[in-house]
Amino acid sequence: MKASLPYKYITSVKNGKQYVVFDYKDSEGKRKRKWVNTDLPEKCTKKALKEAVDQIVTEFDEQFRTGTIQRRKPAVAPVTVVNEPYAVMNDTPEAKMKMGEFVTEWLTAMRPNLARTTYQTYKSANRRFVEYLDIHYPGITLGELRHNHVQEFLNHKLDEGCKGSAVKQYYLAIHSGLAYAVKMEYLMIHPMDKLVMPRADKYEATFYNKDELNALFEVFKGDRLELVVHIAAYYGLRRSEVLGLRWDAVDFTNKTISIQRKVVSDYDENGQRKLFVETRLKTNSTRRTLPLIPHIEKMLLEKKELEAHFRKMCGKSFDREFEGFICRDNYGKLISPEYVTSRFHYVITKHGLRHLRFHDLRHSCASLLLANDVPMKAIQEWLGHSNYAITANLYSHLEYNAKVISAETIARVLDGEAEQQSKAPAETAEPAPEKKSTRKKSASKKSTAKTTDTTAPKKTGGRKKKSDTPTATGESQTSRL
Predict the structure, then answer these.
(1) Hey, CA dihedral for 40, 46, 47, 52, is it positive or negative?
(2) Distance of alpha carbon 57 from alpha carbon 434, whole angstroms
(3) How many Cβ atoms sit within 10 Å of the Cβ of residue 51?
(4) Is-above-0.85 flag for pTM?
(5) Do residues 367 and 397 make contact, with C-beta atoms less than 8 angstroms apart?
(6) How many CA atoms lie within 13 Å of 213's alpha carbon, on the beta-carbon side?
(7) Which of 77, 198, 214, 248 could form a disulfide with 73 if both were Cys (CB 3.0 to 4.6 A apart)?
(8) Hey, what domains does the chain have and what are their CATH numbers?
(9) Residue 286 CB contacts under 8 Å (≥ 6 apart), including other chains
C-alpha cells in the first residue's frame, strides 16, 4: 500500500492472472475499488510485474487527477468511460482560488517565520511563476494546477538560459508554497510529487591563493573596504555577517570575536531601499564564536582610534543611526551590501587582478585552511556550515594533500609487493645448482658423521642418558648444535 497517495493499491492474483487493485473514494466519499489486469500470469518475473504495475499506476494516477477514471464493464457490454471528480479536497473554496491569490495568502502567512532574504526569494520566484501561468494558462486555479504546469515553467526558464542551480531555486520556492496548500488541506496531494527536478551543475568554488590574497590586501590599503576585505579573507565570513559585526561582539580581553547578527538590504513598506539588522541568522551553527586573530585585532584597534578621531571632528554631524557597528565609513554611515559588491569589483578590475566575487573570499579562506592540513570538520565549524556534508561537497576537490598521501600509500603498497615478487625468483635460483652437487656428497657426509661421532668426547653435565654410546646420541648432538 502507498499511504502517501490519495488512493491505495496492491497486487493480487485472480484466475491465474496478476491484477493491480486500487482502493479510492469518489466525490461523495464512497469507497470504490478497481481491478486492473496486468495481462501477466501468476508466475512471472518480479521485473516484468514491476514494470506493468508502474505503467498501470501512472495511467490511473493521471485519470484520478483529471477526474476521468475508466471503469470496465462486463465483457458482454462495451467498455465505457465514466467521469468522476478529481478529488474531494478540490471542492473547497481555497482550491478555487486563482494562483496569484493563493501565493499572496501563503506569503502573508509565512512572512513572520521566514528570514528577510528567504522571503524575498520565495516572493520573486512565485511572482514569475504566476506571470507565466497568466500568459499560458489564464485564470488557472490552485485546484487545477498540475505537475506538468510547473514542469513547463522550469523548462521554460532553462530555455531562457537560466543555470540549473537557479532553476532549482524556482523549484524549491514553488514546492514550498504548494506544500503549505497540502498542509492546510487546500489540496489532497502535492501537485509536484511526480515532477522531475532539474539537475543543478556541481558548483566549484573560485578562490585566491596566498600570493593573490596578499596582492589583494595591497590594492585595498587605505580603502574604505580595507577592514571588510581582511575580515572576510581571514575568517571566511559572509558579506552580511561582516557588516553585522558590532564592537560588543569583540572581546579584546579573552581574544574572541562572535558572529551574532547580519545586515541585509531590502525595500521597506514605502518601496525605499533600506538597511535592516537581523539577529536571525541563516542556521543555528552560523552563530559562532571564534578566536581573535592578532592581525585583525590590530586593525580593529586602529579602526577604534580612527572612529573616535572622526567622531570628535564631525561632532553632531557624525551619523549615529547604526551606533556600535564596526564597518562604518569615517562619517559614521554603515557600509551597504551593494557598495561592498560594486566597490570590490571595481578595485580588482582597476588593478588587473583575477576576477573574483566578494563571497569567494570565503572560499579562499577555506582553501588555505585545507592546504595547511586543517581537518574538514574544523573548517565546517569555522565557516558556520549547518552540517559536514555542505563543507565536504564544496571543498572536497581542494583537499589535494589527502589525495597525495593516498597516492603515495597505494604506490608504496603495490610497488612494494611487485618488488618482492621480482626478487623472489632471483633468490631461489642461486642455490638450485648446489642441490645437485649435494646429492652425491650425501653418502660421504654420513660416513664422516659416523667417524666424528666415534671420536667425539663425552658430554659432561646435564641430564644423564640411558646409554652413553656415541652412536646413539650422535644425531641428537648435531641437531642441538
Answers:
(1) positive
(2) 81
(3) 13
(4) no
(5) no
(6) 22
(7) 77
(8) 8-86 (no CATH), 91-183 (1.10.150.130), 210-398 (1.10.443.10)
(9) 241, 259, 384, 386
Closest of 178, 89, 195, 86 to residue 130, by C-alpha: 178
CA distances from 309 to 64, 143, 315, 323, 400 (A): 74, 64, 10, 15, 47
276 half-sphere exposure, CB direction, 13 A CA radius: 15
Q: What is the model's pLDDT at position 78?
A: 38
DSSP letters for 319-376: --TTTTBSSB-TTSPBPPHHHHHHHHHHHHHHTTPPP--TTHHHHHHHHHHHHTT--H
- Return d(Cα 188, Cα 195) in angstroms, integer: 17
- Mutual orientation of helices 294-314 and 226-235 as an angle, nearest 10°? 160
Give residue 108's Cα distance to chain centre.
30
- pLDDT score of 448: 44
64-93 exposure pattern, b = at least 16 Cβ within 10 A, e = fewer = bbeeebeeeeeeeeeeeeeebebbebbebe
pLDDT reported for residue 59? 80
**3-class DSSP state of 408:** helix
Cell of 81: 468511460
How far is it, in rounded angstroms, from Cα 332 to Cα 314? 9
Contact criterion met (CB below 8 Å) for 196 and 190: no
Distance CA(252)–CA(292), nearest Å, equals: 8
What φ, ψ does residue 76 adopt, rounded to 5°?
-70, -20
Instruction: Report yes or no: 229 and 253 within 8 Å, Cβ to Cβ.
Output: no
Sheet holding 250-251, edge to edge: 250-251, 256-259, 288-291
pLDDT single digits (tens) 81-130: 334 333 334 556 778 889 999 999 999 998 888 888 888 899 999 999 99
Give the model confidence (pLDDT) of 199-237 as tens digits.
766 666 788 999 999 999 999 999 999 999 999 999 999
Contact indicator for 87, 190 with CB cutoff of 8 Å? no
Closest CA to 238 of 330, 395, 366: 366
Place of cell 657426509: 445
Are 359 and 239 in contact by the 8 Å Cβ rule? The answer is yes
DSSP 279: S
Count of beta carbons in the 10 Å neighbourhood of residue 377: 11
